Amino acid sequence: MSTDVRRAARNDRGEARYERGFTLVELLIYSMLSIVVLLIVGGILINSLRAEQLVRTSTDATSTGQLVSQSVTTGVRNASAIAWSEPAPGTELLLVRTVGSGATETWSCQAWHFGGGEVRTTRSTSLIPTPTAAALSGWTLLVDGAAPSAGSPVFDLDATERRVDLTVEVAAGTGKPVLIKTSALSRQPVSPTGAESAPCF
User: Fold this and answer.
1) Are the C-beta atoms of residues 72 and 181 closer than 8 Å to each other?
2) E-strand spans in the chain?
3) Which of 41, 37, 133, 138 is nearest to 91 (CA)?
4) Residue 11 is inside which H or E element, if any?
5) Contact criterion met (CB below 8 Å) for 97 and 72
6) Which of 84, 107, 90 lies closest to 166, judged by CA?
7) Burial category of 58 from C-beta neighbours within 10 Å (exposed 0-12, middle 13-18, buried 19 and up)
8) Given phi > 0 = left and psi -120 to 50 = alpha, else beta, which region is 173?
9) Mind listing the pLDDT tens digit for each residue in 135-163?
10) Residue 6: its pLDDT value, please?
11) Alpha-carbon distance 96 to 201, whole Å?
């Protein structure tokens, strides 16, 4: 048999093998490898989405907690009188007579209520009574998913120093609750006549 014939026979066998395609074993191996790669990529994607969701809920909880902190701190620092009460078990009411930060001195009554996992606030030019459930729904919601931390009150008033310690945990979805802790001290002078509390208390 000549060299050319042998070469042609080898080429025919190679082409036949090439046209034959993948064997069943090769196809199964390629399929398994593709599945493994897809599982790895899918796992990375799912973990990334979970991490993003956790960061987002934690950031939202921190932002709403800081909103409560800023509201209470501003009100207490500008307060001439501060009062705290526990209208019902598991609820707290913080009242202040506070001055606005505008050019004109404007006094008002401001209150914060904690109960049912919510912190709400309201402002008025007259006495703010202990709110009923219906009245409380008209107050501004600052945060939902709030809880006291380690059994301490949310609003801890030191009447002698006219200081309020705010300690609250804000739920962050499936993540760890965000702890907000701050203190605010009144900067307003105390009037000897006691008129600093009228007409709020």
Assistant:
1) no
2) 79-85, 92-99, 107-115, 118-124, 140-144, 146-148, 155-158, 163-170, 178-185
3) 133
4) helix 3-20
5) no
6) 84
7) middle
8) left
9) 999 999 999 999 998 878 999 999 888 89
10) 62
11) 9
